[in-house]
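Quick one: C-alpha cells for this chain, please?
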Amino acid sequence: MKPWNLEETYGLVKVVFGQAQERLARESTRSVLDRQAFTRYHYQEALRLSKTFERTHLTNSLLIDLHAQDGQRKRVAFEKYIVKAGAHATASIQSLHAIPDILAHAIYFACGQNLGPNALQERDVTLPAVVGALKHDDAFRCLAPLLSSAQSGELWRHLAAVSNLSKHRSVVRTALNEDWTGTRKNFRELQFQSFERDGKYFATQSLQALLEPEYNRLSFLIITLGHELDACLKQRAA
C-alpha cells in the first residue's frame, strides 16, 4: 500500500474547510506521527539496553548468578539497567496507547466536524464521540468503522490496561526473564509482570509480543484511513 500523502490531505482540507482548519488537522496528524516515532524509539532503546546488559554481564552466566557472593557489581548494574529498560518499555506502550485518541482528533478536524452545529466540546473529542459524529455525516460516514477499529486489536485491551494502570494507580513492573525449559524462541526477554485490573487478570507478557502486533496493526490502519479520508475530501471538493 502506498504511504499516506499528508501534503495532499492538508491541501484538500484547506480547499474544503479553510486554512485555519488545515492547521488544526496538520497539528494532530503530525502528533500521530510523533507518537509512532516515540513508540519506535522507546521500544528500540529497551531492546538495546537489554542486549547491552546481556553482552556485558550475562555472556557466560545466568540471572541467578547475580545473587552469587561475588555478584555485587553485576547486581548494581542490573538495577540500573532494569530502571532504564522499564522506563522505555512503559513509555513505548503509553505512546502507542495515545495514538487512537490523537488520530480521532486528526480525523475530527480534517473532516470539519468542529465547524457544524453539533460540534463537540474540546474535552469531549474522544474516539467513540468522533466515530458517532462521523456516522451522521454522509460525506465521511465510511471513515467511522475504520476509526472505531483503532482500539479493537487482539492485544489492545492488555496494552491499554498496562498503560492506564501505570498512569493512574501503579506502574506495571518489567523484568528480564529467562526460559530454562527451551520451549520459547528467545531465551531472555523483557516482560511486563502479571497484574489485575477491573477484576480481570492479565498474564505476564513480553514487551515485544505485546507491542509489535499492535504497532503494526495501527500503522496499517493509519495509512488505510488516510487514503479513505483523501477520497472523501476529493469528493467533497468536487
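The first strand starts at residue 174 and ends at 178.
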